[in-house]
Amino acid sequence: MCRQTKEKCAHNAGAVYCGLIYAFLFLPIVVIVINSFNATNTKPYLTWKGFTLDWYGKLFQNSALLDSFQNTIFIAVTSTLLSTFIGTLAAVGMYKYKFRGKNIIDGLLYIPVVIPEIVLGISLLTLFTNTNIPRGLLSLVLAHTTFCIPFVIFNIRARLDGYDKSIEEAFMDLGANRLTTFLRITLPVLAPGIGGGALLAFTLSIDDVIVSYFTNGLTMTFPLKVMESIKSGVSPDVNALSTLILLATMVIVILTQSNLLKNLRKVLKRQS
User: Fold this and answer.
1) Closest CA to 68 of 223, 232, 241, 251
2) Containing domain of residue 163, as a range?
3) Whether the model pTM is above 0.85
4) pLDDT tens digit sequence for 229-253
């Protein structure tokens, strides 16, 4: 009886601990969603004055906020495409070929990952100033591409671990050239790593504040717009846009997971 009581207490303690962790993670999101329906008009917009959908209508009248979000999406998509393309070529090249200085380059890849973002932001600002690159969309895309490339390379290199090169050699023995072999054999094998690296790059880019602050010039992104509004209180229309982004993210995750479950069921049916 004593043993069962201890096990029950341990189980309850574990449940409470997990509940606290989930509350710590998701309560801020719940607060944002709730405040997007808050009818208050007084700063700092934290006092509940009733339920309303007006802020979702005012959101589409706030051209500055929508422009900042449009800039964020453009920068994130462009930098993701560039970093994924460059990172894929770099990862495959460093895996397949041996050359002088390879270990040095491999070590340098960790610098944008481990150094503080404020140091990276100041370094990029200095570089853009000395090279006369105008600060704006171009500098933001270049900056985001710079710190996203290592993450793409690391994801693809993890996929390359244990990769059997003999598959490519066998395919080329059958008459295929290097380009066809890469497109038909190597690329499908690397696809999960490329996809994971691209998603990580997109997430890092769309969420970046510090590097963007040093390299944006007069171009405003959504995170910088939110940071700018913190002093006077984040208005509910910002919460409304955040809620819509959260909703879109949830839909994408649900659709992705449902497809994964369908594919898993198909595999299990074939095996049975």
Assistant:
1) 223
2) 64-237
3) no
4) 777 677 788 888 888 888 888 887 7
